[in-house]
User: What shape does this take?
Amino acid sequence: MNNYNFLLILKLSFKTIFLNNYAQNFSLKRLVVLFLFIPTFLLIQLSNRIFLFLDNFFFRGYKKVEIKKPLFIVGIPRSGTTYIHNVISKNSSIFTTFSLWELIFAPSICQKQIFHFFIKVDTLFGKPLTKVLNLIEKKAFKDINSMHKTTLSSPEEDFFLFTSIGACFLLIIPFPFKEIWDLGFFNSKINPTSKIKILTFYKSMIKRHLYFYGQEKTYLSKNASFSPWVKDLLNFFPNSNYISCFRKPEETIPSQLSILAEGWKIFNNKFENEFFKDPIINIFENYYKELIKLSKLKNQNQFIVLKIQDIKLDFKLKITNIFNTFNYEIPPEFETILDEEDQKNKNYKSSHNYKLDNFNININDLKNRFQFVYKYFNNF
Assistant: This one.
């Protein structure tokens, strides 16, 4: 049984240094990366845990916050979830969501108060600190921006909230061990006790966020890793709504592999099929099966399927229909934003290049394996 907590983070850190079967032969690059990453990572997580603990003394009112009709954007990775999240988050009079800097450095109310104080001071002096941070993030995110445009202030997947308890799937890059791989099969491989602990922690994080930004707001989450979590999320948030995004397997799988490969290289992990490609494809298969199953069973007033073609062709219409179905308000200023995005969408072309051949994936084998997906969507 895996206990997802801070002790697991310590255990995984030890394993990745001394007992890592996923690592290639010793290299100076890997040693330097681990020397820089592990202490920094542990320090950030320990700091976050301390401030989360302090919230219980200084801002205990967050526990009484009611989470009303949260909207979860789930789906297959690389299927438009990020774009939809970014657009809906612009409806800021209704929704609130986490920015990347909060997820990493300020998940607690205490930290938010401290950071926002310094933001106000920085603004008074003409934002010198902001300008320096903008230069740093341009260099830091330069390689990934063609695949996944990222800034510290942009809305981001809230799976980063789970890093301090070791339940964030992205940790598969530095910690490619069973405890993290199992999160891709949350529906079947995570025991009920661990599920309750993880989701209780998550609920407390959302309550903190709403306490700080406004209890009247609707919480907005985008997390492709939640695809096998939806059934359990519904138990914790019975009034929640879901947008489930889909795209062809031959497009999503190489796209996701190409992003993960960049992290795999940094930590000098093995690229043999059994260490990289195969487990990722297994997880994708589970995501597709679970989401299709849920789309058939769940009330359509709570669960809406969106194909990437829908985003490209009729974006404003689709988002408007979703808002009407879920009974979310569309203020005039957000309608203007939707008009602008509708025009942008028709001319958009991704600069992210990826091919099945890069990962020795045969398209016919892939289509046979994922035949159930094409059947469900009538060949898209």
